RNA sequence: GGCCCCGUCGUCUAGCGGUUAGGAUCCAUGGUUUUCAUCCAUGUUACAGGAGUUCAAUUCUCCUCGGGGUCACCA
C-alpha cells in the first residue's frame, strides 16, 4: 500500500502534486493499493472544503485512489497506542511547562548546542505524578540508536496526538510499504520509525526522498496554473520530467507508469521554470487534433483548431489562445493612424471574389488598393485578426478565408 | 552551531573511470518571411577550489568553500 498524505491548510502546490504523482505511479507499477490521507489534526489553520478540492484535483490529474482517510478519524487508535506505550513504560507523563522548556531551548541555543529534552520527567516517582494537578503531555522514551532523537511529545497536553506520532501509527495501520516524500521530512522519518519500533511493528517501511523544487515560493499553485490555461497532462509531463530521466519529451501518465525507474530519480534539487512548463504545454496543445484544440478556445470547429495551432507559435496556454482567437470575431478597434488604409482595404475585400490562396488574395488587394509594405500589412492584420502583429498572415488566411464574410462586415 | 541533501555553459540540465563534455534556452551573426514574431544555419560560454586513489578522474574518497533543508506541546 502506498499513500499520499496532505495537509488541508493551503491550496495544492506543485511539489505536493509531484509527490502524489510519484507515489501513485509506483503504486501502479507494483500493483499495490493507493490511498489518500488528509492530515487534519491542526484545527486552527484548516481551510474548510480544501480537502475536497484537493481530491477533485487529484482526480483531474488522473491520480486514482482507493480510499480517503482523515487522520482525525484515527484519534481513538492514537490514544490507545499511546496508552499502551505508557503501560509498557515506553512513554511517560511530562509536566514541564512551556516556559521552562523554552528556557532550556534558549540555553542550548546560547551554548551553540542542539536542544534535546533532558528527560526531567522520565522517572518521576508515582506519588509525584498522582499528586500533580498540572496539565501534562505524554512523551515517548528516547531510542538508544540515533542520538539526535529525544523523548519527544506524542500526545499534546489536550491529549491530541502530535504529527510524528499520528503519522507513524497511521502508516502502520494502513500497512504502508513505501513512502516517497519530500526531502525536508528526513529527520521526521526517524521519529516515526521510533514510534513503530516502540509499538513492536516488525515491517520495515521503505522511504525514498525527492529533492526539493527551488523557487516554489514564487511559483503559481496548481489551481492557478489550470486557470492560466495549462493542461493537466502537460503539468504531469513537466513534473515527471524535471530532475528525472525520461525516454521521450512528451508522454502521458500511463506512459510514465510504464517507463519510470525509481532508482534513476535525481537527487539534485530542481528549479521550477515557467518557461519549460510553457514549452511542454505548447507541445501538448500542438499534439491535440484540430477539433479538440478548438474546444479549448470555445469553438467546436476543426478550422478554428487549425487557426489556434498557428497561434501556438506565439503563445503557450489555452487562456492566451483564447485571447488571440476571440477578438477575431468581435468588433474592430482601429487605431487612428491606420483608419484610412483599413477602410479602403475593407471595401475592396467586401467586393472581392473568393481566393483559395493567400498569394492571389494579396496580389489582388495590393493591385486594387495601391498600398504596400506595412501600410498594407498592418491594416490587413487588423481586419483579419483585430491585432497589429502576430503569426504568419498567409497561414492565418488559410484558416480564416471561409469566415471572411463573417469577420469583415 | 549539530545533522542531512546538493554543487557541470548566464539559466535548466545529460553524463554514472577513458567523451572533440551532449542537449534545451538565452545572447550574437547570417538567411527565409513586403512581417514584430515564427522558421533555418552558424558561433561564444561550463565540470566551485584543493589534496588523494588510479595508467587514466567531471565521474570514486577526504578537506575547504558555496547553496538548500532540518533541529516545536505545527502539520
Care to describe what's here?
The chain folds into three domains: 1-210, HUPs (Rossmann fold, 3-Layer(aba) Sandwich), CATH 3.40.50.620; 217-318, Orthogonal Bundle (Glutamyl-tRNA Synthetase, domain 2), CATH 1.10.1160; 331-407, Arc Repressor Mutant, subunit A (Orthogonal Bundle). 48% of the residues lie in helices and 10% in strands. α2 links the parallel β2 (34-38) and β3. The model has no long low-confidence stretch (mean pLDDT 88). The chain has 19 helices and ten strands. With 409 residues, the protein is mostly helical. The strands form four sheets. It has a three-stranded parallel sheet. The longest helix is centred in the first third of the chain and has 17 residues, at 14-30. The structure holds one RNA strand of 75 nucleotides.
The largest pleated sheet is described as:
3 strands, parallel
Strand content: 5-15%
Tell me the Rg in angstroms: 31 Å
Structural domain tally? 3
Count the beta strands: 10
Share of helical residues: 40-55%
Q: Indicate the CATH class of the largest domain.
A: Alpha Beta
Shape summary = elongated
Strand order of the largest sheet: 1-2-3
Report the span from N to C terminus. Answer: 63 Å
Low-pLDDT runs: none
Q: Say what the CATH topology of the largest domain is.
A: Rossmann fold
- CATH superfamily name of the largest domain? HUPs
Order of helices and strands: EHEHEHEHHEEHEHEEHHHEHHHHHHHHH
Specify the number of helices.
Answer: 19
Overall mean pLDDT: 88
CATH architecture assignment name of the largest domain: 3-Layer(aba) Sandwich
Amino acid at each position: 500500500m502506498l499513500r499520499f498524505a496532505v495537509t488541508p491548510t493551503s491550496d495544492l502546490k506543485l511539489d505536493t502534486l509531484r509527490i502524489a504523482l510519484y507515489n501513485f505511479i509506483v503504486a501502479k507499477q507494483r500493483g499495490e493499493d493507493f490511498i489518500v490521507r488528509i492530515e487534519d489534526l491542526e484545527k486552527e489553520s484548516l481551510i474548510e472544503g480544501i480537502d475536497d478540492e484537493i481530491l477533485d484535483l487529484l482526480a483531474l490529474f488522473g491520480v486514482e485512489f482507493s480510499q480517503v482517510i482523515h487522520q482525525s478519524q484515527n484519534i481513538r487508535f492514537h490514544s490507545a497506542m499511546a496508552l499502551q506505550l505508557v503501560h509498557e513504560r515506553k512513554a511517560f507523563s511530562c509536566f514541564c511547562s512551556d516556559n521552562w522548556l523554552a528556557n532550556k531551548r534558549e540555553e542550548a541555543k546560547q551554548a551553540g548546542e542542539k536542544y534535546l529534552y533532558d528527560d526531567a520527567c522520565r522517572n518521576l516517582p508515582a506519588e509525584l505524578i498522582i499528586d500533580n494537578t498540572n496539565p501534562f503531555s505524554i512523551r515517548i522514551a528516547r531510542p538508544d540508536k540515533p542520538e539526535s532523537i529525544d523523548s519527544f511529545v506524542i500526545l499534546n497536553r489536550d491529549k491530541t496526538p502530535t504529527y510524528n506520532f499520528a503519522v507513524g501509527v497511521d502508516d502502520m495501520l494502513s500497512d504502508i510499504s513505501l513512502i516517497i516524500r519530500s526531502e525536508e521530512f528526513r529527520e521526521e522519518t526517524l521519529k516515526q520509525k521510533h514510534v513503530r519500533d516502540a509499538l513492536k511493528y516488525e515491517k520495515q517501511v521503505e522511504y525514498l526522498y525527492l529533492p526539493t523544487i527551488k523557487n516554489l515560493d514564487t511559483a503559481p499553485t496548481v489551481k492557478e496554473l489550470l486557470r492560466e490555461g495549462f493542461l493537466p497532462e502537460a503539468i504531469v509531463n513537466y513534473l515527471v520530467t524535471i530532475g528525472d530521466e525520461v525516454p521521450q519529451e512528451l508522454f502521458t501518465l500511463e506512459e510514465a507508469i510504464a517507463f519510470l525507474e525509481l532508482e534513476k530519480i535525481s537527487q539534485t534539487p530542481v528549479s521550477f521554470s515557467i518557461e519549460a512548463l510553457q514549452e511542454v504545454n505548447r507541445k501538448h496543445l500542438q499534439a491535440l487534433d484540430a477539433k479538440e484544440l478548438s474546444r479549448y478556445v470555445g469553438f467546436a470547429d476543426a478550422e478554428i483548431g487549425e487557426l489556434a495551432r498557428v497561434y501556438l507559435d506565439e503563445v503557450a496556454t489555452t487562456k492566451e489562445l483564447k485571447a488571440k482567437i476571440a477578438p477575431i470575431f468581435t468588433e474592430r478597434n482601429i487605431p487612428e493612424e491606420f483608419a484610412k488604409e483599413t477602410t479602403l482595404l475593407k471595401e475592396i475585400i467586401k467586393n472581392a471574389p473568393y481566393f483559395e490562396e493567400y498569394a492571389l488574395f494579396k496580389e489582388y488587394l495590393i493591385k486594387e488598393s495601391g498600398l504596400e509594405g506595412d501600410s498594407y500589412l498592418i491594416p490587413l492584420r487588423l481586419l483579419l485578426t483585430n491585432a497589429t502583429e502576430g503569426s504568419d498572415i498567409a497561414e492565418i488566411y488559410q484558416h480564416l478565408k471561409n469566415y471572411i464574410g463573417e469577420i469583415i462586415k
